[in-house]
Amino acid sequence: MPTSTDFRQVNRPSHSSQVIAAMETQLSNGPTCNNTSNGPSTISNNCSSPVESGSIEDSKTNLIVNYLPQNMTQEELKSLFGSIGEIESCKLVRDKITGQSLGYGFVNYVDPKDAEKAINTLNGLRLQTKTIKVSYARPSSASIRDANLYVSGLPKTMTQKELEQLFSQYGRIITSRILVDQVTGVSRGVGFIRFDRRIEAEEAIKGLNCQKPPGATEPITVKFANNPSQKTSQALLSQLYQSPNRRYPGPLAQQAQRFRLDNLLNMAYGVKRFSPMAIDGVTSLAGINIPGHAGTGWCIFVYNLAPDADESILWQMFGPFGAVTNVKVIRDFNTNKCKGFGFVTMTNYDEAAVAIASLNGYRLGDRVLQVSFKTNKTHKA
DNA sequence: TTCGATT
């Protein structure tokens, strides 16, 4: 959660029949910008739905609970919601393979009054770092699956309201969000739109992908969203670098370990190390324009990765140098092969700097890596 | 193939 404001109050539903749940969906991919047909796509085929029934007929007992803490179990979910009233059934949705929680679940009460009470009482409740969302679940149906879109390249000035205005011509929007930088609050230019029905999402892709919103100078990308469980597998991978490292032994790991020790010693003795973020002991917000700094840490660009490179290789290479919060291998949309580069975010400037100094020019397999702080370069002008 | 973004 970006802020700790009164989400609980502002987000409380005033008319619950219109509060529609957001179901997280499976990963699926959409088309790229390279449309083979460049004529205007027909978005108004006669698919006007007879299914206006929507929320009125929906269950008054079944709730969807979103944004649950990662470690919350089904038993804890049942315990929490059982405090309101008798539960008919309760299900925490988990990853099919890893069994990890996907962060949402369903609670079906016996009495509709208890369901309403649970929304009023538990929606917006803070649990650890999360603010849970409790709302009526829509009937399970194929037509509402895979209706979640990921939008990137948005103008930084675009508001959530404007985003909704842009997409609402294609259907009924269930949820929308624009991601913002945690420090500056400025839009990251990416967001989500969940439609009521998949067909609406498909039409929005056809109509808006690679199009410039009114007043924008760059086209946006609109595609189906990934499901949100993969951070978990990344976190699991991050533990790889803690274990004895058989893949990258030798001088490099030793150098990394010695650096960490030096750093600890310096901290213990109060030695101040250089960081562009620190000016006379005062952290300056002017630092947001320093190359590589991404608000949440120091962003590092890694070039010349092999096509089969994956995230674990980045964790293993950078982890020994200090706190790594995120790694990303950039892949080709169609082949899913690495496009030759990736990004690593490190918390501390010093550790990032040493990692760069150590890993730039490092030979990985038959390739020589180029490693530097991320800049704002882009190959398309 | 030289700088993304996944609630």
Automatic annotation (TrEMBL):
Assigned keywords, A-Z: Repeat, RNA-binding
SMART domains per UniProt: RRM
Region span, Disordered: 27-55
Polar residues composition bias: residue spans: 27-52
Domain RRM: 61-139, 147-227, 298-376
GO molecular function, one term: RNA binding
Signal peptide: none
GO cellular component: ribonucleoprotein complex
Domain of life (superkingdom): Eukaryota
Gene3D superfamilies (UniProt xref): 3.30.70.330
InterPro entries named among the record's database cross-references: ELAD_HU_SF, HuB_RRM3, Hud_Sxl_RNA, Nucleotide-bd_a/b_plait_sf, RBD_domain_sf, RRM_dom
UniProt family annotation: Belongs to the RRM elav family.
Protein name: ELAV-like protein
Source species: Anabas testudineus
Protein encoded by which gene: ELAVL2
